[in-house]
Amino acid sequence: MNINLTLIAQALAFAIFIWLTVKFIWPVLTRKIEERQKTIADGLAAGDQGRRDLEAAGKRAHEELAKARERVGEIIGSAEKREATSDQPVSVLHISLWGSET
User: Fold this and answer.
1) At residue 101, what are phi and psi to the nearest 5 degrees?
2) In which domain, by residue range, is 34 found?
């Protein structure tokens, strides 16, 4: 077989392979890559949103704890004031956090 004919046949086969790849395989690969990039970007955005939500929840929890501590201080102060003005001791255990006595 002639070497020139072999080279031409190989070049033609390679050109057909490239054309088929560009026509049928490349669009599918490109679409899958874009989908994967979007999935990764969405996951990163969700992670950032989750981190922001966690920080906000931590701040709210800290504020609620501060309010609860302040309220407990008020309740204990009120109980101590009642105990000082009363003849019998008032048990702090009988006063709930919401201020109603049982």
Assistant:
1) -90, 145
2) 3-94
